[in-house]
Design a protein that fits this description.
With 500 residues, this protein is of the alpha+beta class. It is built from seven helices and 29 strands. A hairpin with a 5-residue loop joins strand 3 and strand 4. The structure holds calcium ion (3 copies). One calcium ion binds next to loops.
Length: 500
Amino acid sequence: MTYISYILIMLGVLLLSSCNETLIHPSDNQPPNTTLFLDSIRNQQNSRVYVSWSGEDTDGMVIGYIFTWDKKNWYFTRNNDSTFALQVESSDTNFRFSIAAIDNSLKQYPYEGERIEFVDKNNNGFHDPGEDFPQLHGAVDPTPANLFFPIKNSAPIIAWGNDTTAKSSLSVALPDTTFAFATFKIFVTDPDGDATIESIEWSMNDSSQNANWKTLPKNTRLFNVTIKDGLLLNANNAIYIRAKDIGKLSSKVLRYPSTNKTWYVRAAKGPILLIKDCANKDIDNFYSRALSLIGSNTFDGRFDVLDINTTRTADAPAKTIPPFINPMFIESLNLYSAIVWYTDKSPSMTLAQQSLTPYTRSGGKVLFIADLPAPLSEDMRTEIRDFSPIDSIGSSEVSSDPLAIRNGTEFIALEHGGTIYPNLIKERGSVLVYPLYPKANAKPVYALPVGTKWQGTPILGVQDDESTMIFLHMPLHLLNTNDQAIKLIERIMLDEFKIR
Ligand SMILES: [Ca+2]
Ligand SMILES: [Ca+2]
Ligand SMILES: [Ca+2]
């Protein structure tokens, strides 16, 4: 039998007996007396407190109680105990709990939780001894029992990630070196209830009280830091963050990186970012050299290299890739006017899919030189279609014979929008490529000539109509006869993308 049903049955019995026997006359009734099992709590409590009480009546029985935490708002209950969540309002707060028993002399009882009015005779807003509860007249203990609770305010807790575990913190750790845009994720909680968190404050490179602590909205869980916020360029940085509750109690100050780690922020050297998505030194050297030479050395020392290959494993992306593609990786790309992204046969197409469309949409230009694995998965085909001017890719390679495209084969540049790139001549190595099919708003820019080892004139380079992305499926480093592949990169960077 539940407590409530027990009470109801008791009440039923009581009403029956009241009808059968003489009704208790209010003026004859003795009010009940209320007991709390303690009259003070010596140790500070957390903000959730358990309280129990009882009442006795000399000429009847106790049927319920009214209680208050503020001497203003009194509520009816039939229960003998409860757990209360108290709102800590300052660092530490003394709460006073008052409770008064009600006996069985009333005709009608309040409902559970009903607020009970009192006559505030001295107009001070509080219930004082002797002030009447008209609804309970004569049935309520005139001297409520009181209990004082010193409530301790506990400090908020702050951590990196989704919770307080080391694993979570690690999952949102930044690369050791980042560009001038960083995204942080924080977990904030307070033992007194998350609603008691008032603010989150952070400071760059200074954790003293006099530091320029900036306030984040209290619900912030993800936030970004840029140069405007005080990131130091070409230097180690540290960010400090703390949470405060409504009692102005502060969490410990959390630091990123942790004390034995470093976080270096590098400035962009120039307008071009070269993304090394490739494990081949020969190819790396080709692109670094090409970017240094073009435009009469205009970009020598004015481009950056992002290596997304070397620290990549089968299970995890390279350590240079931040945990947040959006916004951190995308905003890092946005620090550059153009990206040259070259791959080997295991390209990071998922990353390209996630980042390049937002990058080009905000004005960035992309030269993507893709090598592709055989077989080429449906997933990778979809990823490429999502970010590039390619509508589809042939089901099999132009020829599976690595020697089908012989040295000396010309890769024919196709006129597009009134311009034409240089023809490229294969110099060395083996070339295994798929035919590309452009989207409706894109133009082919390179094709193989008619040959005996393949069908038709397979397209190997495509450019969108807005000249924002050029997708080449040609190993430029093997097609650099007379430096014409370098000339091509120069034409793209200077004439098509207008990078200066
Ligand atoms: Ca009584
Ligand atoms: Ca009063
Ligand atoms: Ca607190």
